[in-house]
TrEMBL record:
InterPro entries attached to this UniProt entry: Ntn_hydrolases_N (IPR029055), Proteasome_alpha (IPR050115), Proteasome_alpha-type (IPR023332), Proteasome_asu_bac (IPR022296), Proteasome_sua/b (IPR001353)
Family: Belongs to the peptidase T1A family.
Ways its activity is controlled: The formation of the proteasomal ATPase ARC-20S proteasome complex, likely via the docking of the C-termini of ARC into the intersubunit pockets in the alpha-rings, may trigger opening of the gate for substrate entry. Interconversion between the open-gate and close-gate conformations leads to a dynamic regulation of the 20S proteasome proteolysis activity.
Subcellular location per the Swiss-Prot or TrEMBL entry: Cytoplasm
Pathway per the UniProt entry: Protein degradation; proteasomal Pup-dependent pathway
Name of the protein described by the UniProt record: Proteasome subunit alpha
Top-rank lineage group of the source organism: Bacteria
Gene Ontology cellular-component annotations: proteasome complex
Function in brief: Component of the proteasome core, a large protease complex with broad specificity involved in protein degradation.
Subunit structure: The 20S proteasome core is composed of 14 alpha and 14 beta subunits that assemble into four stacked heptameric rings, resulting in a barrel-shaped structure. The two inner rings, each composed of seven catalytic beta subunits, are sandwiched by two outer rings, each composed of seven alpha subunits. The catalytic chamber with the active sites is on the inside of the barrel. Has a gated structure, the ends of the cylinder being occluded by the N-termini of the alpha-subunits. Is capped by the proteasome-associated ATPase, ARC.
Originating organism: Streptomyces nogalater
Species lineage: Bacteria, Bacillati, Actinomycetota, Actinomycetes, Kitasatosporales
Keyword entries, A-Z: Cytoplasm, Hydrolase, Proteasome
Length: 250
């Protein structure tokens, strides 16, 4: 009988991490930014049916880069966890921190298991607070670790360069239009430092808007509302777009 090929645990984990990172890097990047009235999610996504951003619960949103079937399974599991916890206890007991811990345990177990491949996904779980100081944004890499982010975060293929761009330009108190344009500028930059144009129809945009009177703060920004936010600066545009909070919301 031949001797089995030995690989040290450290090397095995390093190989699994490299495998997951390469898979995530093949996906399109997305960014999540705080603005004055909430949190905005922006990503390049030509599909109108396969969403990168989703609502998990009243004040909680979900964003993911990587393999769609894998992060969709995680999203569904998160919705089930949130619904069960909110029904069993209280709606206020469903928090982004609790959800991030659940995702971290799942991703960590899969990553350390030799029986299956690691998930090629990177997640962002965000919760909008009553004030900007109460906002929470957690990034979860493929290995199940949790990173508490503030201001802005990028995940996906070109995340490091995009994050550097956002760190230099993002500021507190930005309007939705300003935050959206900054996100598009960051996503438009390629690895060589050049810029390309991303048309509105290839953008997926959603927000957690703390000013909404409903319990559910998540809504998608589409159509004319998105076009106006991209085209015009100023608070008047935001007022107009928020007034259209009807057929264009989820």
């Amino acid at each position: 009988m031949s001797t089995p090929f030995y690989v040290s645990p450290q090397q095995a984990m390093a190989d699994r991490a490299e495998y997951a990172r390469k898979g995530i890097a093949r996906g399109r990047s997305l960014v999540v930014l705080q603005y004055a009235d909430g949190i905005v999610f922006v990503g390049e996504n030509p599909s109108r049916a396969l969403h990168k951003f989703s609502e998990i619960y009243d004040r909680i949103g979900f964003a993911a880069a990587g393999k769609y079937n894998e992060y969709e399974n995680l999203r569904i599991g998160g919705v089930r966890y949130a619904d069960l916890r909110g029904y069993t206890y209280d709606r206020d007991d469903v928090t982004a921190r609790g959800l991030a811990n659940v995702y971290a345990q799942t991703l960590g177990t899969i990553f350390s298991s030799a029986a299956e491949k690691p998930y090629e996904v990177e997640l962002v779980v965000a919760e909008v607070g009553e004030t900007p100081e109460g906002d929470q944004i957690y990034r979860l890499p493929h290995d199940g670790s949790i990173v508490d982010e503030h201001g802005s975060v990028a995940v996906g293929g070109n995340a490091e360069q995009i994050s550097s761009f956002l760190d230099q330009r993002h500021r507190d108190g930005m309007s939705l239009a300003e935050a959206l344009k900054l996100a598009v500028q960051a996503l438009s930059r390629d690895t060589n430092g050049g810029e390309r144009e991303i048309p509105a129809e290839r953008l997926e945009v959603a927000v957690l808007d703390r000013t909404r009177p409903q319990k559910r703060k998540f809504k998608r920004i589409v159509g004319r509302q998105l076009d106006r936010l991209l085209a015009v600066d100023g608070a008047s545009t935001e007022a107009e777009s928020s007034a259209e909070d009807g057929s264009e919301e989820e």
